[in-house]
Amino acid sequence: MNQSPKDPLRTSDSNIDYKSLYELNTDGILTINVHGQIYNGNKTIEQLSGYKIDELKCKNFLDYVIDEDKEEASDCFQMAINDASKECRFTFIHKTGEPIPCIVKFIPMEVTDIDKGLFLVIKDVRLFDQLSSKYRESQLNFKIIAENVQDVIILMDDQKNYLYVSPSSKTMFGFDPKKINQEKEPFFNIHPDDISNLANNFRDAMQTGKTFNVTLKALHEEKGWVWTHIMGTPVFDENNLFRHMVLVARDITLHKEHEERLTYLAFHDALTGLPNRRYFENQLKQSIDKLNIEGQPFTLVVFDIDDFKLINDTYGHDVGDQVIKEFATRIKTIIGQDGIVARLGGDEFVAILYKISTKVDVEKIINRIQQETVNEIVMEKQSVTITSSIGATICTKKDMDNSNFFNSADVALYNVKEKGKNKFHINYS
After folding, report:
1. Are residues 132 and 209 in the same domain?
2. 319-332 pLDDT, tens digit each
3. Ranges for the PAC domain (predicted)?
4. CATH number of the domain residue 149 falls in
5. Which residues contact 210 (CB under 8 A, 6 or more apart)?
6. 388-395/424-428 β-pairing
7. Minimal CA–CA distance to 351: which of 408, 301, 401?
8. Residue that terminates a domain, selected from 123, 143, 170
9. Contact (CB, 8 A) for 323 and 305
10. Which of 373, 358, 372, 374 is CA-nearest to residue 426?
11. DSSP secondary structure string for all residues of 346-364
12. pLDDT at residue 123 above 60?
């Protein structure tokens, strides 16, 4: 009997952010593990597939792909597993047996840990295919449809001259379609960094007859650059000669913001906004690499709030959270551009001081932190005074790993705790 896999969306501290990505997205979304097994999905996927989420759980997503596309779908999935994700097109099977052509993309749930699973974002392109088919049958029918859809539809010839621009261009990009039709510059509102990619895809589609998909920045007349998805389909006449390219553009700014939010959450602490342990360990590795290659020393600092448990027990966790946030703000302000501060969890913080490697300079920074820490923290109904114990290690030895330096800083902090509180100790490693 299949056992339902653990769904990280239900256990993540950031499930509120993930929930918005699920419920507000007009595309279908499945969450799958690294074996392709489904463990969740949004409401749109139920509408798209005809299946309830409970019917999909524990099944492999490939079970719902038509046989002709299974190899393409499997290859696309493996590319995502190997950190080479791309958009792919293949056909899913509706519960009724109806084929559903889709554009899909596999997005890692956590960019640093593919084992957490992936989002499978599924865009239904039946309407687009119907539009292309309609146009082949009748230019008039195409125009009627194009003028009544929200996506921007553009026709271009082999020289990239504009043949037709749908009225929705005014709503989506702020440009009057008549003005666009008069443009002599192809792709005039595409970001300079993206023009060559779009042009290359355009050329390849003319030669191969295959649909292409690109994500790029397009200019909105008032808003500036907006993230845009463009699907291009070449149309050929009865003699198989290229007739024109059908480009369908969609503003995906909201989707991009969700992706960026997911990336941010993967590397930052939800309470303080500081980098988290994962981000910090990456930065520490870079500092160690610079030490080994360039001989650039640095200082690792660990610190916590004295008697923080007593604050929580006395005033409650809401006050405790406010203390943590204010403490984080003060440390970050003091260290500024001289280094990076991260929260490891609870009241434990850690910092790297770049290029600060003399005891005198380290003491100056630590003294400022401790002087600022004792300033009263004033809240709406409560004020609290805290102190901090700090351990540091000046890192100068090459060929050491993260744990060596962390252990040295932890020993320094332990020495402080042995002697009392609101003090600091500096080691060398």
Report:
1. yes
2. 999 999 999 999 99
3. 212-264
4. 3.30.450.20
5. 204, 234
6. parallel
7. 301
8. 123
9. yes
10. 358
11. TTEEEEEEET--SHHHHHH
12. yes
